[in-house]
């Protein structure tokens, strides 16, 4: 059953789940945490009602009514910088090497990262594949014909057989 929390004159309905299933903490849930604390509930009781961890509830009680700001995490591309020379040399010799293969090779060299780190870094350093040049030409009707040649032998009663 969702909990009701009043913010000014607005009622917020915050869904209550099991512990650890709280998801993203929004401003409504933070207001609910503070409201329940004012009602005299303990941090553990608030955590149970909100479906959050006790440490999360304590964090937002100490933080105040400031809305959390979520955004993309900064990717740290420097993890693979020490292997850049190796990767460039391998890609120059074998341009079709997969990220999985390169990850296995990097692991033998002491790399501690994961597959997604390697794929993101390869997108930055892998040379673009050359575009094959294709020459198209058009002819007037009746000036060019295309024929497929094949030799077929025919035997009466047996049907056709390729030679």
Secondary-structure blueprint of this entry?
Blueprint: E1 3-7, E2 10-14, H1 27-38, H2 43-50, H3 54-63, H4 84-93, H5 99-108, H6 115-125, E3 152-155, E4 159-162
Antiparallel strand pairs: 1-2, 3-4
Helix pairs in contact: 1-2, 2-3, 5-6
Model description:
The protein has 6 helices and 4 strands, in the order ββααααααββ. With 163 residues, the protein is an alpha+beta fold. Strand 3 (152-155) and strand 4 form a beta hairpin.
Summary, kept brief:
The chain is of the alpha+beta class.
Percent of sequence in beta strands: 5-15%
Q: Structural class, judged by helices and strands?
A: alpha+beta
Major sheet? 2 strands, antiparallel
Largest beta sheet: strand ordering: 1-2
Average residue pLDDT: 80
Q: What brief labels describe this structure?
A:
163 residues, alpha+beta, two-stranded antiparallel ribbon, 6 helices, 37% helix, elongated, disordered N terminus
């Amino acid at each position: 059953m969702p909990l009701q929390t009043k913010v000014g004159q607005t009622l917020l309905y915050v869904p209550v789940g099991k512990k650890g299933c709280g998801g993203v903490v929004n401003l409504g849930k933070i207001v609910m945490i503070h409201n329940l604390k004012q009602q005299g509930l303990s941090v553990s009781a608030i955590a149970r009602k909100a479906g959050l961890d006790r440490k999360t509830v304590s964090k937002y009680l100490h933080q105040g009514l400031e809305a959390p700001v979520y955004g993309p995490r900064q990717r740290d591309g420097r993890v693979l910088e020490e292997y850049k020379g190796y990767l460039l040399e391998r890609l120059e010799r074998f341009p079709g090497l997969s990220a999985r293969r390169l990850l296995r090779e990097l692991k033998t060299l002491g790399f501690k990262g994961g597959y997604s780190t390697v794929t993101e870094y390869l997108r930055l350093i892998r040379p673009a594949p050359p575009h094959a040049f294709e020459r198209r030409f058009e002819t007037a009707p009746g000036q060019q014909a295309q024929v497929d040649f094949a030799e077929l032998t025919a035997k009466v009663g047996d049907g056709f057989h390729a030679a």
